[in-house]
Design goal:
This is Helix-turn-helix domain-containing protein. It comes from Streptomyces bangladeshensis. This protein is an all-alpha fold. It folds into two domains: 1-36, no CATH class; 40-104, Arc Repressor Mutant, subunit A. The chain has helices spanning 22-31, 44-53, 62-74, 79-86, 90-104. The longest helix is centred in the C-terminal third of the chain and has 15 residues, at 90-104. The radius of gyration is 18 Å and the shape is elongated. It binds zinc ion. Zinc ion (ZN) binds at residues 5, 7, 10, 12, 20-21, 23-24.
Length: 105
């Protein structure tokens, strides 16, 4: 008896007692836009202080974190320091670098 989310093209079921799914509910609530995907948002001006001045910023979006990690690595920064600057684990930095190598191959 579950119903589909009412947002066009959404294939998820509506959340209990709601007409839209959880993902769309959260996007509407946080950003007033059901189609916004937060991981794709980028604020290039937020990346510069991290990369150039080595100022920690743990509030970067997913995409910006990866960009900052790539640029820091290109400057020879150790993955442990990259992890600390952008607020992820060192393991995540290594995983991103491995993925980048795979995509390049
Ligand atoms: Zn939906």
């Amino acid at each position: 008896m579950s119903r589909r989310c009412r947002i066009p093209d959404c294939t998820r079921n509506a959340a209990p007692r709601r007409r839209i799914c959880w993902a769309h509910k959260n996007r509407l609530y946080r950003y007033q836009d059901p189609h916004l995907k937060v991981r794709n948002i980028t604020h290039p001006e937020d990346i510069r202080p991290v990369v150039e001045d080595r100022l920690p910023d743990h509030g970067l979006t997913f995409t910006d974190r990866r960009t900052a990690a790539r640029e820091l690595a290109a400057r020879g920064v150790h993955p442990a320091e990259i992890a600390e600057l952008i607020g992820v684990t060192e393991r995540t930095v290594y995983r991103w670098q491995a993925q980048a190598r795979q995509n390049a191959a």
